[in-house]
Design goal:
about 150 residues, mainly alpha, Cd81 Antigen, Extracellular Domain, Chain: A, 7 helices, about 0% strand, binds 2-acetamido-2-deoxy-beta-D-glucopyranose, membrane, transmembrane helix, Tetraspanin_EC2_sf, TSN6/7_LEL, Tetraspanin-7
Amino acid sequence: WFSSLLFLHEISLAIGFSIKDTFLRTYTEAIQNYNKNDERSHAVDNVQESLSCCGIQSYTNWSTSPYFFKHGIPTSCCMNSSDCNTQDLRNMTVAATKVNQKGCYDLVTSFMETNMGIIAGVAFGIAFSQLIGMLLACCLSRFITANQYEMV
Ligand SMILES: *[C@@H]1O[C@H](CO)[C@@H](O)[C@H](O)[C@H]1NC(C)=O
Ligand SMILES: *[C@@H]1O[C@H](CO)[C@@H](O)[C@H](O)[C@H]1NC(C)=O
Ligand SMILES: *[C@@H]1O[C@H](CO)[C@@H](O)[C@H](O)[C@H]1NC(C)=O
């Protein structure tokens, strides 16, 4: 029983690590390819707006994005959308006072860590119920096949 608990814990750590790793890679890529219009860019905007965060570790991560050279930091980073013009967002020094200071990666991962038990539980629950379903399907059909002869 204890070792299965340990196993569960290891699974949840592994799931957590791969989710975090995937998130970091996709988010970095999304910033590098940000264009304000495609679905991935909308996802970035949604995360930055809803969590009041900006960039990966900080807003400075936008400084290497091709989008920054053309348009500055996206408006979804703004602390106060009515006090945040595109001129401000092009200048890193000025932008520093106008955009969300927290990076999105830490916020997302700490949210995941506090909820990792639930996430792992759900993932495990789905796998487990599929297993039960498979067992039921298999044994039920065997049971029916076995009893067909008796019923005739
Ligand atoms: C984001 O910016 C921080 C601070 O400048 C830097 O340490 C970090 O490596 C950057 N992360 C990525 C994925 O570029
Ligand atoms: C946002 O900026 C506007 C214009 O400078 C200001 O009037 C307003 O109070 C600000 N709102 C917040 C929540 O800081
Ligand atoms: C950014 O703004 C500051 C303060 O207004 C200014 O001194 C600096 O020259 C600007 N930098 C760029 C690259 O425009």
